[in-house]
Design goal:
two-stranded antiparallel sheet; DUF305_CopM-like; 6 helices; globular; Ferritin; single chain; mainly alpha; 2% strand
Amino acid sequence: MSIPEIDESPNDQTVLPWWQSPLNLVALFIAVVVLMGGTGFVIGERNVTPRPNSVDIGYLQDMRTHHEQAVEMALIYISKPGTNPIFHLISKEIAFGQAVDIGRMIQLLRQYGKPEANQSGIGMAWMREPVPLDRMPGLSTDTDLESLIAAKGTDADTVFATLMIAHHQGGIHMADYAATHANTSEVKAMAKSNSSSQTGEIAELKQLIAQM
């Protein structure tokens, strides 16, 4: 019986660290959403005032969609080698922070007995600015996302920062309205936090772009 030869030739495939694998990052995001969803439920049970109005529900549903794209863009950017380390850190903060928010939004909507996502296809009707859901202010187009996927190095830094600044500006517009017109303390607090954190991130991103 012949013994099969062992191929000792070097493997040309490079094994990336787990944090550079987009699939691993997506899995991590899903795990965070599930985990923080449970946490959000506990927080909601303790702090939420009753009788949410249309702004509470609309904000939670539409901002969930808005946040999901921000997480998607951050994960795309995180997976790229050779990018600016400060941009890289900001993108991780965005991915984690907005994943936490998504978990809280889902659990609050469950608690209110409402759908976990906007099923009408029309966003922002709750703030009297109806628009197709995929064209809410700040959302990137498919072409924008393709540009981010294709970009490398410093070009990726610029594309990511530019898209995220516009994304945050649209989100702040929605958050500021909800902070004023929502009925529950939890949604009001969430909207104020979203507006504040995204305003700070815009300032950071603009400063970094100016220094490039």
